[in-house]
Amino acid sequence: IDVNSAYLSWTAVKMLKNGYPKDIRNIPCIIGGDKKNRHGIVLAKSISAKKYGIVTGEPVVNALKKCPGLEIVPPEHDYYSEQSHKLMELLKSFTPDIEQVSVDECYMDYTGIRNKFSNEIEAAYTIKNKVKEQFGFTVNVGISDVKVLAKMASDFEKPDKVHTLFPSEIPEKMWPLPVRDLLFLGKASEQKLLRAGIKTIGDMAKSDEAEIRQLLGDKNGRQLYRYANGIDDSPVRSEREEAKGYSAETTVEEDIVTYEQALSLLLAQCDVVAARMRRD
Predict the structure, then answer these.
(1) Which of 42, 55, 214, 219 minimizes the number of CB atoms within 10 Å of its CB?
(2) Catalytic residue among 82, 89, 105, 209
(3) What is the rounded average pLDDT for all residues in the chain?
């Protein structure tokens, strides 16, 4: 389960409830930064803003050059944590077998509730529609036998959609995608693969594993090669293991080149880490 443009969606719902005349999900809008001072970076963007070429992590000043009429709304991280908690509580009313992996996404194990629905597709639509009805924001639901494929499926066409990606569907739905779309594959790894003539996830899956490990490093290459072939044996962990440390990470779409950009992202990550520490 993955909230569509979580920060933007949660802010939009709050603004509408408070009487704001526009739904910022339907106009060029971003969360983050300061329009008056033209400072900060883009933390989230609407679909309309994306059409202007605006990407997460870029400076607000760049975004304004691409779209001078861009609406900019500051983030409210405490509010996002509150919305995240409410969402997870609703999802737990369907099944306690949930592994939350970020503020806006989680894995749910269908096994224990399969007798309540005719099939997993019906369950997904029931959950998706209940979230929309109760909270006013939308989620995508990805369905598969393994976590990596369920996550990949949830990133297909958005918003408010249900997608499947079972192992039998990999050649049709996943292998034609560019390698950059593979889960956890970063920009540097993408460039190494492209230079080696590996352009799609299918190219990578059909390559020799030793070649991928040589290109991307032994551990990282092995994991990404397995993901490209839809192999992932990690279970849904509803019981969190005792934390040895607390961390947050963010992958940005463009290189960070200023302290201002880095500090804005670090502040958001500190907020996430601090929230997890307070919770525990």
Answers:
(1) 219
(2) 105
(3) 92
